Amino acid sequence: MAVYTQVSAEALADFLSGFNVGALVSAKGIAEGVENSNYLVDTDRDRFILTLYEKRVAAGDLPFFLDLLDHVAAKGLPVPPAVPDLQDRVIHELQGRPACLIRFLTGVSVSHPSAAQAEAAASALGRLHGAVGDFTGERPNTMGVEAWRPLFERCGRALDQIAPGLHDDLAEAIDHVVARWPGDALDRSVIHADLFPDNVLMLGEAVTGLIDFYFACTDIRAYDLAIMHTAWSFRGDGRGYDAGVGDALLRGYETHFPLSAAERAHFTTLASGACIRFALSRAWDWLNTPADALVTRKDPLAYMRRLHHYDPVLATRTA
Ligand SMILES: Nc1ncnc2c1ncn2[C@@H]1O[C@H](COP(=O)(O)OP(=O)(O)O)[C@@H](O)[C@H]1O
Ligand SMILES: N[C@@H](CCOP(=O)(O)O)C(=O)O
């Protein structure tokens, strides 16, 4: 459960009085998510998500994320814009945290996506990449290829507390993948950068929401699909690659963006990089999540197993 900051009913009612959204009826901390504190808020008029930005979201980046959501929503994609208050402000402060009131979208995130659901979700990613073609905002990827070594070094030898050998395994993987990283050889774009199944809301096989744009940034466009491939095509523990789902992702995406020969040639490297990125952030969180935070930490080793699927050369100690 991701609630790092508690908001009392009184503080929330006071906060909502600055909006034209009706009066508070109920509020519950949301079980999913690891980055921010999220509450499901019902008023006597409507339902909202209240997000307090916590760990990796810098307040200075919020205008980029919110402008991006407005841009993409205006193109007809199902993304949740922030709700303005009575003075037309969308970024607030609550309990000392940056906070936004977000429009609620219906749908559920699937735990075990079928090939048809994966195809629909990847098709939505392709539409998203089409919609950002004329978006002028830019944001460097703070979790991109240049960030891996510094984060690895901040984790240090404590990585071996998670699994013996993890430190050396990751060091070798970073050297191997960074040396092969395509860099400027591939098209760049604004990307979502975290389109896991829990960030896609669905009803049956229809996508009803793309959420959680708080890692969105400018990076290699096909890297977004590679991230999705690592997140959708395996069981939660990182075992059991499902080729039906993996192929469906490529098929769905290519209805909007056929991959170039270069993107195909580099896809395994992009996916391996995604595995390093999520293994590292999960490892850092594993070692540093406050004991009193209501959050379920995610397993870094599940991402090492995925890495070994894409790059069997790296399959060594922690497999
Ligand atoms: N706009 C929204 N509409 C409906 N549910 C949402 C919305 N935003 C977030 N949620 C719910 O809250 C959960 C956590 O949100 P998310 O943005 O993924 O959190 P975090 O940033 O902590 O990862 C989601 O899995 C989803 O259940
Ligand atoms: N998707 C990442 C963690 C980021 O959390 P999210 O809840 O914002 O998607 C992972 O699984 O490691």
Automatic annotation (TrEMBL):
Pathway(s): Amino-acid biosynthesis; L-threonine biosynthesis; L-threonine from L-aspartate: step 4/5
Domain Aminoglycoside phosphotransferase, residue spans: 27-254
Key word Isomerase present: no
Gene3D superfamilies: 3.90.1200.10, Phosphorylase Kinase, domain 1 (3.30.200.20)
Superkingdom field: Bacteria
InterPro entries: Aminoglycoside_PTrfase, Homoserine_kinase_II, Kinase-like_dom_sf, Pseudomonas-type_ThrB
Record's keyword annotation contains Ribonucleoprotein: no
EC assignment: 2.7.1.39
A GO MF term: homoserine kinase activity
CDD domains linked to this entry: HomoserineK_II (cd05153)
Residues forming coiled coils: none
Reactions catalysed according to its record: L-homoserine + ATP = O-phospho-L-homoserine + ADP + H(+)
Family of the protein in this entry: Belongs to the pseudomonas-type ThrB family.
Protein name: Homoserine kinase
Species of the source: Sphingomonas aurea
Biological classification of the source: Bacteria, Pseudomonadati, Pseudomonadota, Alphaproteobacteria, Sphingomonadales
